[in-house]
Specification:
Layout lengths: L4 H15 L13 H18 L20 E7 L4 E4 L5 H5 L4 E12 L4 E12 L7 H12 L4 H10 L6 H13 L8 E3 L4 E4 L1 H6 L6 E6 L7
Parallel strand pairs: 1-3
Antiparallel strand pairs: 2-6, 3-4, 4-7, 5-6
């Protein structure tokens, strides 16, 4: 059976519940968030393959875990729910990343007696690509346009948000915003060598706004 977004979300719910009870020896004492993320991403893909689903594996060309679904998987700790993603264009901050996200948020507990670790999945969230732009950037632009802002106003706003100092790029983006207003995004996207995505808002908003769905939410604390 070919994997679809709907099936992926359903299986992510089942996987999250099972993983929250699993005791893993290889993660005991591990504090590297990247190592935990790699473990969970590989385990979820293996879980899907073992269930017989057909999907395209992630590749360096697309940079996505599920290219045929135009979807990327993110794993992040509740302590600091954020991760990096490849920078493609400044337009991503206004119009979104260009692909959807499935985000696993976890708490890690080590059991010294058993020398195992458990990843309690607190939230699993599916974010449609249309909602992956920066919250403050899109909110400001939408309000500006609603108040009859013009192209120069849009440029000034983008400068005030430190989007870029390149006037040619600013003008091009402002023209695009005037003819194609953005939708409200819900990520916080910070510039770095790569985009830094912060997920606190989507955790809070999951299930309450269009395009952000709570796939799984833990209802009880982990008891070891």
């Amino acid at each position: 059976m070919y994997l679809t977004d709907k099936i992926l979300c359903k299986e992510a719910e089942v996987f999250s519940a099972a993983e929250s009870r699993h005791q893993e020896h290889t993660l005991f004492g591990v504090t590297d968030g990247k190592a935990v993320g790699t473990y969970l991403e590989l385990k979820f893909r293996t879980y899907l393959l073992d269930k017989g689903y057909i999907f395209e594996s992630g590749n360096s060309a697309s940079g996505l875990d599920f290219p045929n679904l135009n979807l990327d998987m993110k794993v992040t700790s509740t302590r600091q729910p954020q991760s990096s993603c490849p920078f493609r264009s400044l337009r991503q901050k206004i119009y979104g990343l260009g692909y959807s996200l499935i985000v696993f948020v976890y708490e890690k507990f080590d059991d010294p007696g058993m020398r195992t670790a458990t990843l309690r999945i607190t939230d699993t969230i599916y974010v449609e690509k249309e909602q992956t732009a920066d919250f403050q950037m899109t909110k400001g632009l939408i309000e500006l346009l609603a108040n009859q802002g013009n192209e120069d106003d849009v440029m000034d706003f983008m400068v005030s948000r430190h989007l870029t100092s390149d006037e040619i790029e600013l003008r091009r983006l402002a023209e695009s915003v005037m003819t194609n207003p953005p939708e409200q995004g819900y990520l916080t996207i910070s510039p770095a060598l790569q985009w830094r995505l912060q997920y606190r808002r989507i955790i809070d908003k999951a299930g309450t706004v269009d395009g952000i769905y709570s796939v799984y939410k833990s209802t009880s604390p982990l008891v070891l």
